[in-house]
Every structure is written in structure tokens, then in C-alpha cells.
């Protein structure tokens, strides 16, 4: 029998609605199983931990093959908002919290949330741009050190 997973480090690199939820759900599931969790937000994933942006993440409808709609339809005005609204309703029916609440839930559960230092610098952000419960701004090397001995999951 395989050894139980004791630690996971999840990388969230997308700042879209459908880019944020998979990592948040996996992190929450791990915490519910008593697994140590680090979540590393990089590139556009920084929007997930930015209170000025995380309540307004939209489903990417242009060129998203998972939606099964033509790219030209996804590009029409209002389509992204409509699809996002539909997804929000479905998530609510499944008792999934909105993204800002989910981020807070993870922090409250003991998950450690980190912003990627290079991405923070690239987008001219500061510590004040992120949720209060951010554990820190970390380099890739520091993230790997934190992840040592555990599984790394890229969403």
C-alpha cells in the first residue's frame, strides 16, 4: 500500500473563474483530509488573492474548448458575463463558496498562501495588494523548499 500524502503544494497560475476553482477545491479537499497545504499564486493567478479583483473573475470564453462554443460566440459582448453568472449559480448549488470566501476559508483552515515574488514584481504589486492572510511573497526557490517532501500540483 502506498504511503499517505502528508503535504501538497498547489500552483495556481490562472486568474480566470475556471482557472481559480480547481486549485482552491483541491487545496480545500487536502485540508479536509488533514494534509498540509501550500498554495503558490503566480502570474495571473495573483488575481485570486487580490481583493480588488478576486470577486470579479470571469470565465474565459474565447478559445476555451471546454465550453464547446465557437470562439466567435465567446467573443461576443456579454457572453463571458453570462457564462460566469451561470457557473456561479452552479457552484452555489454545489455549496461552493465564492472565490473571496474560498480563499479566506483556506487560510482559516491552515493552508499557507504565497504570492510569487517574480510575478509580484513583474506586475508592480506590493504586499498590500493581497489578502491579509497571505503567508508571504516567496521566490520559486523558497516555494520548492516549502514543497520538499510533498506533492506539487499545477492547476
| N-to-C span | 27 Å
- How do the strands of the widest beta sheet line up side by side? 4-3-2-1-5
Mean pLDDT: 95
Examine the coordinates and then state which fold CATH places here, giving the name of the CATH topology.
Hypothetical Protein Ychn, Chain: A
Can you identify the CATH superfamily?
DsrEFH-like
Largest sheet: 5 strands, parallel
Number of domains: 1
The counted number of beta strands is: 5
- Helical percentage: 25-40%
> Beta-sheet strand percentage?
15-25%
Structural class: alpha/beta
Q: Low-confidence parts lasting 5 or more residues at pLDDT below 50?
A: none
Characterise this structure.
It is a single chain. The chain has a five-stranded parallel beta sheet, with helices on both faces. The model has no long low-confidence stretch (mean pLDDT 95). The longest helix has 16 residues, at 17-32. 39% of the residues lie in helices and 15% in strands. The protein has helices at 17-32, 71-74, 79-93, 99-109, 117-122, 140-147; strands spanning 7-12, 36-41, 112-116, 136-138, 151-154. It has one domain: Hypothetical Protein Ychn, Chain: A (3-Layer(aba) Sandwich), CATH 3.40.1260.10. It contains six helices and five strands. It starts with 6 loop residues before the first strand and ends with a strand. The chain is globular. It has 155 residues and is α/β, with parallel strands linked by helices.
Write the layout of secondary structure elements.
Blueprint: E1 7-12, H1 17-32, E2 36-41, H2 71-74, H3 79-93, H4 99-109, E3 112-116, H5 117-122, E4 136-138, H6 140-147, E5 151-154
Parallel strand pairs: 1-2, 1-5, 2-3, 3-4
Helix pairs in contact: 1-4
Amino acid at each position: 500500500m502506498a504511503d499517505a500524502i502528508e503535504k501538497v503544494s498547489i500552483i495556481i497560475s490562472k486568474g480566470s473563474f475556471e482557472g481559480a476553482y480547481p486549485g482552491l477545491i483541491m487545496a480545500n479537499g487536502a485540508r479536509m483530509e488533514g494534509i498540509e497545504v501550500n498554495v503558490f499564486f503566480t502570474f495571473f493567478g495573483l488575481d485570486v488573492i487580490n481583493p480588488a479583483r478576486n470577486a470579479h473573475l470571469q470565465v474565459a470564453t474565447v478559445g476555451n474548448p471546454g465550453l464547446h462554443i465557437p470562439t466567435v460566440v465567446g467573443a461576443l459582448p456579454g457572453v463571458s458575463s453570462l457564462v460566469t453568472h451561470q457557473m456561479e449559480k452552479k457552484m452555489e448549488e454545489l455549496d461552493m463558496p465564492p472565490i473571496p470566501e474560498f480563499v479566506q476559508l483556506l487560510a482559516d483552515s491552515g493552508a499557507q498562501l504565497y504570492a510569487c515574488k517574480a510575478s509580484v514584481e513583474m506586475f508592480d504589486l506590493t504586499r498590500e495588494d493581497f489578502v491579509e492572510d497571505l503567508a508571504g511573497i516567496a521566490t520559486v526557490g523558497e516555494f520548492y523548499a516549502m514543497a520538499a517532501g510533498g506533492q506539487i500540483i499545477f492547476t
